[in-house]
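Provenance and format

Records in this collection were gathered into a single text stream. Each protein contributes a sequence line and a token line. The two records reproduced below are adjacent in the stream.
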Amino acid sequence: MIQARASGDPFEALGDPNRRDILRLLSDGDKPVAEIAAALPISRPAVSRHLRLLKEAGLVAEQAQGTRRIYHLQEQGMHAVQAYLERVWGDAARRFRLLAENTGNAGNAGNAGNREHREQAAE
């Protein structure tokens, strides 16, 4: 198996919709360049360039099978991106949940009071 050391920025690589489409295709399993190119509205050389950037970012790897190159997701690179996002958004989500839990009860109590007031006014 041929693997390159990740030298590119995975978030820069993820910034292009065609590269995200390639990752989605590879999430279904290993694929040769020709199959990836057939599924996308871009040329085969463009697919090859996108694959090179994804490989440099550590998100995909290739394996030689005869004259073909079979690409697959690079688990280590994908886990690194996931861990980063969970760390950043996990902290934000915890803070938001804490805020929502602490203000949600006061908001619900206020809504109950407003409902009682509306019911009395309707009588």
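Adjacent record:
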Amino acid sequence: MLQQSRDTADNAARPSAALSVALVYDSGPAVNRWFAGLVAELRRSGKSLAGLIQEDVPQPGRTRCDMVLHELATGRAMSISEDLGAGATSCRLSTPRLLEAAQLVEAQLTEAEIVFLNKFGKAEAEGGGLRDLIAHGIESGKSLVIGVPASNLKAWTEFCGEYFRTVAATPEPGQDAIAALAALLGEPKAVSEHLHVV
């Protein structure tokens, strides 16, 4: 399945005029600000969006936030955190809930022009998580924006190949940078090739 997803992403990306953007980040709050700015800018321009962006919700008495995904087309919010107790330090990702969120996005792909996915994280780097959804999004010819932790950039490159644009998700994105990237996403056919800009 891992190799099949990789082949799908690679083969689909080559002929597509869509733009795949990896927002490379060290800080979760930083990439969330980029997502929020891009979503707002693209909605102002009338683009149809689908996908998942993450909100980290603090919980009283807990050192770690709950992870809540917001699906852009429907507005539905879904927690993907398992409650492992106040002192838990192990991974709290609920795989069934994440896959449920992926199915929700799959149902919206046909109508969307641009797809957002919150993270190419540990689960995706190891061959699971949203990996098949990412491949399907690329195969369908949609422009894609995805958060990629800097620690997973090598795994992302091995999965997606050279057919993407990388943007460093700086802590405080300027409006000019947001507007410029939104313009590229809104007119992907104007981009002749996917360039690395980190």
